[in-house]
């Protein structure tokens, strides 16, 4: 164990400091496709009973119109976060009628590309802008990719705790700068070790045949007539088949400081990309089809496994918020939806995520140089494509080959003190208890969610889509059998009503001409 890490652990064990860990905040964003009772993509508009996608804080859509996104508040206890996520699920199921929430990350049987509806946000100028952004995504990456779902796990450490760590480090810079520096260091460690999350929680080893119909030369194997897969894959969602972009390959910042990160994003949102320039901002009929022709239309287009974040104010852009006020929290974006869980994630996994992220924050995090970034990516891609392959070796931080299982156990050993600290702070044993089943997965790859998906397909003698539909129905039945208390149900109905009124109020205001808005925005 590195001495810096040991010293920080000792500091956090002090009786006046341990309780500060209860100020960590945890939020979850979970995406899920709406599908018909037969498992086809729902082509209906966003249900009015769920409110306005433009203004609802908890229930919106992501890229495709059927791709729901549920957003919890950030709470001091991840158990509370999961409680709210469950409430949102139960309310949504109560108003979906015959439609279902698709259980895994990879999509259902998809209609022809042209028939996949892009999410709409109303007739206001800002609503049209959000729609145009998604038009641009469809133009650049195709609509199929916009139907992939995932979980984003948001985590922050309280300023009071950063201040005590800064004091112990003898650091003289401002607290804002120290905090940003340490969040960037945390991000570097997350990138070093996130292959472990892919092994332990990856749950997308297979896809419906419709997903790869327009991908010539893909390397997937046939599972059956309707399914393609890779036998040892953990997360095809995070592979080259998922959210990847050739245009973005040159802007992968190595997170050595906040300015390096923000400069990379600023360059990407202002540098034209030849392929997008050739497409143009307008189609043959003179209609807008993408915001601009730059590598990124906006910062949110950057596909990364983790993002440093700061809540924006007013019309502020994300990168401006980071530059002005520093990093506030991190968003871990590489978490697959577990199709066997009604919410796609459970408290046991959330407790481990908390321990893992705290470890990334406290562990020494040398700057990345030389071949570090390509090697980190190679480890990650090896695990998403063949993480359960017997005897798979990765390359450790010292450039030495190491068996995935051995390195994984070493990491869990190093993470355990963080789990113990969190248990002490919260008065629980859930963080330490979450480690045992994960150790078992490292010992036996058949216990991983990705292996369980393939095993269930074999046992049930069904395709990926058929398994996912069966699980979707099971989850719907379970959640619908637990109706919400009337006051909670009424509150969600009111949130929906209020959000529709808020959108109508925005649309009732005088709207700037869209071309003028785009000129001013750019």
From TrEMBL:
Q: Lineage, please?
A: Bacteria, Pseudomonadati, Pseudomonadota, Gammaproteobacteria, Pseudomonadales
Please list the coiled coil stretches. Answer: none
Q: Which GO terms describe its biological process?
A: glutathione biosynthetic process
Which key words are in the record?
ATP-binding, Glutathione biosynthesis, Ligase, Nucleotide-binding
Task: Please report the name of this protein according to its UniProt entry.
Answer: Glutamate--cysteine ligase
- What pathway, per the record? Sulfur metabolism; glutathione biosynthesis; glutathione from L-cysteine and L-glutamate: step 1/2
Record flagged with keyword Nucleotide-binding: yes
Gene encoding it? gshA
Tell me which family the UniProt entry assigns to this protein: Belongs to the glutamate--cysteine ligase type 1 family. Type 1 subfamily.
Q: Which domain of life is it from?
A: Bacteria
Q: Does the keyword NAD apply?
A: no
